[in-house]
Design goal:
about 290 residues; alpha/beta; TIM Barrel; two-stranded antiparallel ribbon; 10 helices; 10 strands; about 15% strand; binds iron/sulfur cluster
Length: about 290
């Protein structure tokens, strides 16, 4: 099987078969992200994708889940993506989940009918990056997305029956906008009601625009205490809809994974304990690992 360049997948997809359908990300401008800086966006040839699917079948007798990479795979034309999904479901009838990376704007640009075709062809889950519900923060990080666009993309996915994981970043508003960031993000999540939420503490990736802003003082990082307080606010104020909470990213101060709202009290107890006792709360900056 052929993989080009650095490969990324969500940590929840560690056991999935990865099939590369695109290279890079069509946006590639977010100030905090260096995932695909080394790649110009390109769509792989259908024949090459099919060859990988067939080779994987020969290699693996049982595949439970498949993840399509690279960045925003949902930018593919609907017919093209449906052909890939059809090929996967015909080749791996035992596979119960097909997921991919999608921009919330990619979802918004498709019609509900197109998304339904993808769902019917086997697409079960899309991983999307919201990062923040704060319009000021979204603009500063050059996300190319507004809160309204995010909500529209989500509504279309819901209408089509495709589950959505929304990732957000604790600390992405910096020290100054920590409160605005988490209040608006929580409010937007309560409108979007995603089936899964993955919050991650901000990691400053070397070589990014954000890393330069940290160096010049244009961006002052939220303190570890603020990051804990952001998570506390989020957990206290999510509006009771059922969602899978993936708070166990390696950079998070507290690791929590489970279903909300049933685990809310337990997760909040862990945050309160960390706020009261964790030595990291005495530090100015959270030490994180690059992705
Ligand atoms: S965060 Fe996502 S949309 Fe932004 S540049 Fe990175 S891969 Fe592209």
């Amino acid at each position: 099987m052929v993989y080009e360049g650095k490969i990324y997948r969500p940590w929840m997809e560690a056991n999935s078969l990865l099939i590369q359908t695109t290279l890079g990300c069509t946006h590639n401008k977010c100030t905090f992200c260096d995932m695909f800086r080394d790649k110009r966006f390109r769509i792989r040839e259908m024949d090459a994708i099919f060859a990988d699917i067939e080779e994987a079948r020969r290699m693996y007798p049982h595949i439970r889940s498949i993840f399509l990479i690279d960045g925003n795979v949902l930018v593919l034309k609907t017919d093209f993506l449906v052909k890939i999904l059809d090929k996967i479901t015909a080749t791996f009838p035992e596979c119960s989940q097909i997921a991919l990376y999608a921009g919330l704007n990619d979802l918004r640009r498709k019609s509900v009918d197109e998304l339904k075709q993808m769902k019917q062809a086997g697409l079960t889950l899309a991983y999307t990056g919201l990062e923040s519900g704060d319009p000021v923060t979204l603009e500063r990080i050059k996300k190319g997305l507004t809160p309204e666009q995010a909500a529209k993309g989500m509504a279309k996915a819901k209408a089509a029956g495709i589950d959505i994981l929304v990732s957000i970043i604790f600390g992405i508003g910096g020290k100054e906008r920590s409160r605005e960031h988490i209040v608006t993000t929580t409010r937007l999540l309560n409108i979007m009601k995603p089936e899964q939420i993955a919050p991650m503490a901000l990691a400053i990736q070397p070589g990014t625009e954000l890393a330069q802003q940290v160096e010049t003082g244009a961006f002052i990082q939220a303190t570890p205490l603020q990051i804990l307080e952001e998570e506390k606010y989020l957990l206290e104020n999510l509006a009771g809809f059922e969602t899978i909470y993936w708070g166990d990213h390696a950079n998070n101060i507290v690791s929590s994974r489970g279903i909300l709202p049933e685990s809310q009290k337990r997760f909040l107890g862990k945050i309160d304990h960390a706020i009261a006792t964790h030595p990291v709360t005495q530090q100015e900056v959270l030490v994180t690992s690059p992705w």
